[in-house]
Please model this.
Amino acid sequence: MFLENTSNANEKFGWIEVICGSMFSGKTEELIRRLKRAKIAKQKIEIFKPIIDVRYDEQMVVSHDENQIRSTPVPAAAHIKLLADDCDVVGIDEAQFFDSEIVEVCNDLANRGIRVIVAGLDMDFKGKPFGPMPELMAVAEYVTKVHAICARTGKLANYSYRKAADQDKQVMLGETDVYEPLSREAFYKEQRSKKLKQMNVDTEILSSKDAAKK
Model:
């Protein structure tokens, strides 16, 4: 359970909170909720997101429920450190898209007395750890894993299944037209089905080559 600290009191150090999970699990919604609470507490906040994320808006951080808060798009993690002066709280959305320096940046901000709240996908569409997220989760004081609802079974979902044909690029922006949340059971069945289809295709290709030789 996440127990919210709203103030650093007399401590000179901040901390790192990571909100992770699959697509459509409410990560950004939870990030915005915490940031708005900090704002109500009259703390100075800054929000950053990767410049490549323009799915909803170029400037705003927007959740799937259309909840939003103004942010600063940045091309690299190093820019966050430069722009986060005199902040009490720093929010970072879609952290998986940042370079590995994001871990050092978050640690540096926390060591300067700033509360750092990071949201991002913990796994890519293949179910593999995504970018700097595993390391961020390791150094964070608080990690909250949220879940979507599986589009096939109605169970808790923690996988982001890519429906699109391109299965090579790790980064592909999209919404429900490209991705759907799946439970372990549904994700495993989809992965197994893909492997079987690929095996059949490979077998057909080999058979065609053998027939051509004859």
